[in-house]
Amino acid sequence: MAKTVVLKIKRQDSPKAASRWEEFELGWKPGMNVISAMMEIAANPLTRDGKTTTAIAYDSNCLEEVCGSCAMLINGRARMACSALIDKLDQPITVEPLSKFPLVRDLQVDRSVLFENLKAVKAWVPVDGTYDLGSGPRMAPVQQEWRYPLSRCISCCCCMEACPQFNEHTGFVGAATIAQVKLFNEHPTGAALKQERLRALMGDGGIQECGYAQNCVEVCPKDIPLTNSIADTGREVFKQAVKDFFRG
Ligand code: SF4
Ligand code: SF4
Ligand code: FES
């Protein structure tokens, strides 16, 4: 008998509609991943029991774990669907949308909270008006080496989904934003906004909400040293708070 793949996918037509599960059985192919399976379903949207259904809504773009758009819960774990190889997953494979972000439809969620958080901490190097000033400051290779892993963040939100502290009660910004604060604070030009970034992480929803459970670092698809970044940034925030206190 030909080998098959069974996927159990959570469907929801709109944010207010009731959710339902649908099962699909596909012919196995070497190298299949969850996105390629969903593409096959889109080409022939028939459930396992023979009912015609609609194509599944999901986000994806690069198909090579770079754009960060295809994050979802696969067998209960937050991960990228394009790099989730079918052969490495237990079947039936359950596929659900991330649970901590507003649902749009099926597997699509609105992850704009991360982008709002990045704006709040000014996660950029301020370069306005510097285009004609020649090349920027030099950076030592050792500094480039430890900054590079932080720059690999693809804004997928897996770290926030897995974090017990990222919820509506705490308003916690989450690990990705804190790691970006470290990345930009350690840039020779980006450091101009260092104090503002550190102050943005003080108070409710800031870095103090982190309980160091380390779930974030476990699920990050880009192996970003999140807990180290949180610890380092926490010390910087504390030093800044002390300075601010004595300055009145
Ligand atoms: S260390 Fe734990 S509490 Fe802190 S951001 Fe990571 S998962 Fe969340
Ligand atoms: S830190 Fe890792 S898990 Fe979090 S958004 Fe960036 S790439 Fe995704
Ligand atoms: S499609 Fe871009 S990360 Fe998966």
Bound molecules: iron/sulfur cluster, FE2/S2 (inorganic) cluster
Number of helical regions? 8
Beta-strand percentage range: 5-15%
- Considering DSSP H and I runs of 4 or more, what fraction of the residues is helical? 25-40%
Which structural class do the helices and strands define? alpha+beta
Shape: elongated
Cα separation of the termini: 76 Å
Number of extended strands: 7
Mean pLDDT: 95
* Physical arrangement of strands within the biggest beta sheet: 2-1-5-3-4
H/E topology pattern: EEHEEEEEHHHHHHH
Oligomer state equals single chain
Residue runs with pLDDT of under 50 for 5 or more positions: none
Gyration radius from CA atoms, angstroms: 21 Å
Describe the structure.
The N and C termini lie far apart (76 Å). α5 crosses α8 (226-247). The chain has 248 residues and is α+β, with helices and mostly antiparallel strands. The model has no long low-confidence stretch (mean pLDDT 95). The protein has eight helices and seven strands, in the order ββαβββββααααααα. The structure holds iron/sulfur cluster (2 copies) and FE2/S2 (inorganic) cluster (FES). Residues 60-63, 65-70, 80, 82 line the site of FE2/S2 (inorganic) cluster.
